[in-house]
Fold these 3 entries.
Entry 1:
Amino acid sequence: MEKPTTWSFKKLVFDIKTKILRPGIFKSHLKAKQDLRYKKIDKLNFKRRKRIVKHAYKNTSYYHKKYEALGSDFRIRSEKDFLKLPPVTRDDLANNFERLKVKNANSRNSRKVSSSGSTGRPISVLHDMRFPYTVLQWRILSWWGVRPYQNQAYIYRYKRPFFKKISNTWLWWPTKRIFLSGAEMDLKSVNKFVKKINRLKPELLQGYVDVVYEFALFLMDNDLRIHPPKMVWVTSAPLFENQRKVMEKVFGAPVCDQYGNTEVFTIAAECPRQNGLHIMHDSVHVEVVDNDNNPVPKGIIGKILITDLRNKIFPLIRYEIGDRGKLLKTTCGCNIPLPLMENVRGRQSVMLRTPSGLTIRGEHLTILFEKYLHNIREIQLIQKEDYSVDFCYVSKPKTDEKKEVELILGHLKTKTRNEIIIQPKCVDVVEKKGQKKPLIISHLK
Ligand SMILES: [Zn+2]
């Protein structure tokens, strides 16, 4: 832990810099705090939904056409009206990029981001730079007692360009931010990074699930220890419960799970009580629906639809993000007035298929595997064109994984009704697709 005097100096510099250099962020930061204090957060969410629908209808040719069928005097007056809006699929997004933009979109008020394509077809969206999404991240950090001006450690997938490193150092001075890239996970670089962590004692360790997990395993294998941060923040892929346990043990700190993706960065995140993910209800509207797009009750799994309440450049309304999940009936017990959803497990688009047409979704397998992964580190199922499956696994060094392999194999065979050949294969690394390591890779036509 840093001394309070260093803290307060950092806070002072941070406040001044933010106020002067990024007044927009500072104002939104204050506003976001107020939104949360807003007693009727549901009302605020609904008000913003009405506003974004009206805005999208008026300013984009895509939504204008899409909602025209609802009648020229169509307005959102109730939840029922909102449910009449037809969802937007990933394919719609891929095919209508230009038509989804508002007329005044330009390079100053928006930034184009593209998904890696590992979860299906690659797609691009524009983020609205006028809404500083950083404030949502600060909000989550504050739940965990981490302030943005405290030292932080990051693990990226790639090495950062030299100039970016330098500018970042200046931008954040006197706060120290240190980086390691997944690409340089060797003893020399990791040792250096560990020494830095132990000297600067960052409050936060942040990165993509796969590289942070790799870092944890590396520390474990090489008997290295880091000064425990207050919290570990992992993003970008569903988190296995087993991975979380390993990370929490190795880092000596809780791992905060969050839900977000390229299209909408911050959708929901855990508070320290870890009773589910709090939805950023003032910024994002999350729905769970069945295959006919009718809402399912809380506690039931369905397709997730996202409405970004803040993106006025590239509106996403009832967007079918390609994930399945559920809203929770329970409340958290903390004082955060934001509703809860469960962690998203696995992607909707990837599944195993059998010749008779049976499908097994990734999320079911994730839950199944969690129970058995002790001596196995990573799993990947590769389904070939002839339906046969390579069950690839990476085992921990000096352990006997045979029993686990047998158990998992047995379950996979039962789930696929013995219709397909499944071949276990011990591998050194699992395949990457884009930047991710998918659980299922399907070569089926
Ligand atoms: Zn909570």
Note: The chain has a mean pLDDT of 84.
Entry 2:
Amino acid sequence: MVPQVAEKPKIDLIQEDVSLRSFTTWHVGGPARFFCQPKSTGQVKRAINFANEMGLDIKIIGNGSNLLVPDEGYDGLVIRLGSNLAETEINDRSINAAAGASLYKLADITNKAGSSCFNFLTGIPGTVGGGITMNAGAYGREISNYLKGVKYIDGQGEIHEYSHLPGSFDYRNSPFLDSEKIIVGAELKLDYTEDQPKMSEILESRRKKLPYSKPSAGSVFKNPTNCDKTAGELLDRAGAKGLTVGDAVVSHQHANFILNKGHATAKNIQNTIDILRNRVYKEFGVTLVTEVVVI
Ligand SMILES: Cc1cc2nc3c(=O)[nH]c(=O)nc-3n(C[C@H](O)[C@H](O)[C@H](O)COP(=O)(O)OP(=O)(O)OC[C@H]3O[C@@H](n4cnc5c(N)ncnc54)[C@H](O)[C@@H]3O)c2cc1C
């Protein structure tokens, strides 16, 4: 008898063996065995069905600005929700945004409608889906402060809507992180009473403080909760700035940023992370936890 081999269902949406390097802001990482960039919720559901039929694990990515993809890549299906699924619709009191809309676009169109409430997101190079998952924030504000509802798809392909969000959003954490829920859209409330600095001012001030000129994933470690110093301060005091492993280097401008000088591998970056964590533990007895997500 000829053994039965599960045949790959034909589906144009899905590509095979796609390098993830250009889909992360660190520009490192190996290939996804399967990859797709859906243009609609229907296509996301088709991609989930494909993965279920093939028995594949699924990983969702947005702009890859908080991700470390291993050099070996990902042996499953990567679904990227980016500019293909990025419509926004603004109403009087709220804005509906698809998961792939950029945080910059959210701030920009809200601004043009007369509210500065999302200006704090300027310069955070993520998507709405990634931003909600990471509870992105800056200057004392977080995106979850403005969430009215989230539309997501579960691992079986069923669509759900949270109108009352679960209360478990906190610093760089949300109920969507490490879950099988795939955010496809969100409703955010607009606040016209806020008077945040202009987007251009925020960008200028961030460019002075943060190293934007080389590939990075922003802050590598979360600020510790059991310490009065930020992760950046602890790393600076531990002499992290300039530490180099292969082509990965700790920024001289900000000790919590690891930069890719050109040809860094994920292993170079992971080794740097391990060295930094050990140094801070040895010097201060504080265990730093990564903010970046390793897939
Ligand atoms: C230069 C620079 C500066 C930064 N500054 C800040 C800052 O000031 N504040 C801040 O909070 N962050 C900052 N970041 C980090 C990063 O931009 C944010 O965490 C951002 O919200 C990540 O969004 P993303 O779309 O890139 O998500 P990704 O990096 O693609 O994914 C992050 C996580 O979200 C999950 N995910 C993504 N999309 C979805 C979805 N649709 N449904 C379910 N899960 C999803 C992924 O599986 C992963 O676990 C910075 C990064 C850089 C490079």
Note: The mean pLDDT is 94.
Entry 3:
Amino acid sequence: MSHMKTPVGKPFTFVHAADLHLGTPFKDISTALEGAGKALQHATLDAFDQLVALCVEKEAAFLLIAGDLFDGPNRGVRAQLRLQRGLERLHDSNIPVFIAAGNHDPLKGGWPGSDRWPPNVHVFPPSANKPFPVEKDGEAVALVHGVSYSRQAEKNDLASKLARTESPNYQALYQIGVVHATVGTYEAHESYAPTTLENLRATGLDYLALGHVHTFTVVNEADPVVAYPGNIQALSPREMGAKGALLVSVDAAHRATLEFVELDSVRFVEEEIDLGDTDSLAELSTLLQEGAAAAREEGGARAIVLRVILKGRTPLYSQLARPGDIEQLTSELREAEVHGTPPLWWNRIANATSPELDIEALEKQGGLESELIGLARTLSEDDALLSGFADEALVDLYKKPEVARLLGPRPEGAELEAELQLARDLALDLLKGGL
Ligand SMILES: [Mn+2]
């Protein structure tokens, strides 16, 4: 289906951001990383400064913030001051700001301090109210609708409250809806304000500026454009890669072009290193340094928090599995990197290597080894059997201190198949006296 579009308006640009979580504490960072802790304290605020700078530099017609401006009710003095300063800078540049509240910052009767914000800032009420027309250089270009959460666990389809204004003065404008909502299902996110693409289409709007999902995602490319910019700064090692906002250019025919602009000041990077052909610690050290260099490359001028996963079948397996060795390796690397620019912090090295084992030969040789290999095979061929076994055996196994020392905590969302192989190889290696 093709939509014939006729030129209707003046081209303009706006910025769509979401999930700023200003002043949030970071999770899952090793306490050994003091410097990182300090940088991370400022990271969401530094990213916000970058967001403001982007709006000013690109002469944005307006800025949209689609929920979770704050992380929680305790907003902190530093975050509030930086926010205030940024909003004033946008006011001085004649850039209106439209904010919808999300599940982390529901309105519940208003936000303390927001009465001091400059008059260019508009916070949407919990019911879809009168939309705001926006002018660029004296000419009306867009109409901005929006709706806020009044409570944290919003289960209503808020987006469906939005509807295009058809009155003659406004119907030809580019019309946008700002809402913190869930379209589809996302493993890492609660399904708050759930909606469907069908319902979003039914609003008749041109662009749905969503928030909630912390990963940049274009849900629908056009008619209407539906997008999540992701958060402007990652909040934990699980949020890997570049973070930022969307710079949206709307042409005279109301076609929108989305550009993802990186704004994060600290980046979480994960590198997988295969130790398949590696049999010496010196080689391992070189590979790790190369991993760090690659992470730096990926981060540009940003500070990096790095997690490395060691993989592959290697004679180094027994050594890496020895209690304390990975920790020593990690602190060695930390010391070597401490003066680097930009800073790079080794958050964790995970050992997912396996020993060099000749499974076929071991199975033929009989005894406990071949029984173990047979059991693992039976389990891997039957999903129900494997998940039952995992619930019973693996959960208890990881509770044992000697196992925890060897393997670390049970990885979140680990693949059972991979865990099974890890357990089999570890047992086989122990049997051959490799430890
Ligand atoms: Mn969020």
Note: The pocket of manganese (II) ion is lined by residues 19, 21, 68, 104, 212, 214 (CB under 6 Å).
